[in-house]
Amino acid sequence: LTRFASWGINSEANIVLLETQKNKGPFRLADSLPPVKELDDSISLDVKITAFRESGQRLRVEAWAATRAGEDAAIEAVRVRVLGADGQEVDRADRPFDRGHSRAWLAERVQGFPEGVPGWVHGFGALLPPGEYVVVIDVLDEDGEVMATRDRRVGFDAAMAAREGFGISEPLLCDAYGGALSHSGLSPEFVRYARAVIPHPESTLHPGQREISVYYELYGAATDSGGRSRLRIEYEVLSVKGFDPYVGGAGYVDGELAQPLVRAVFEDDRTGTTTGGRVIRGTRLQVDELEPGDYVLIVRVSDRLARRETQNNVLFRVPAPAGG
Hints:
The protein is mainly beta. The protein has helices spanning 103-107, 158-164; strands at 27-29, 43-53, 59-69, 75-84, 89-96, 120-128, 131-141, 146-156, 167-168, 172-178, 191-192, 195-199, 211-219, 228-239, 243-244, 249-250, 252-253, 256-257, 262-272, 278-286, 293-303, 308-318. The chain contains two helices and 22 strands. It is globular, with a radius of gyration of 19 Å.
């Protein structure tokens, strides 16, 4: 498995799961995760597994694990395994459970990272041909025994991807994004295209978190003679209750059209593309005025050169204040 730097969130069992446009695209992710197998009650494990389209008929699968553990938990490593549809192991990687993946360690080196966030973050990536897979993340002790585990199904439809044209990956949330890479000692998996990217694998924000960053990749964007795209990008945050999955946006609540609780628009965003032809985008959004509850972040992108549009969304939760 090759290291990649990306991030995201998982959907917890008690968050309302929505059928949205992302389920109709070339990448299919399971709608929910099975319960964590808490083999050690001092460990909790959250994961995010998502997929990106690579140039050609390949799927880049990325998995992020956020682990919390007591000081006496004898954790040795975090392992990711990719299984084919037949249950056979396609690939695996073991990552030492070291201080370089501690959120406290990252907070010391990355500006804007929330303080006081416990646990560790580990990331993995793999390039896969079209097909159906199961990605499994295990927390291991020094004897190689599994202490906690989670998995998720992911699929890639090559024929649909070939017809897709202009598209967007699943938006991924992070605790810190952007800036020049002046952060000494930052692990390569927290770096993407010369930017520091610190993932937020959980669906629930940190208590008191005032802003959240979002990252995504676009493919099939038209470019001008200088090799730059021209995009209109719109971000909206709606409550889960106010989101209509059939239209991919605001629905009606008690007869009234739901209004965005957070909104930001970039009318003429110009940027170059990566060597693989993708456009890499992201931004920060203020969430400090959101009440505790479940929300949907929608990203809509219009290609101003080709007059095409794509969108996707991701769920997240704002927790109640500590002690509330």
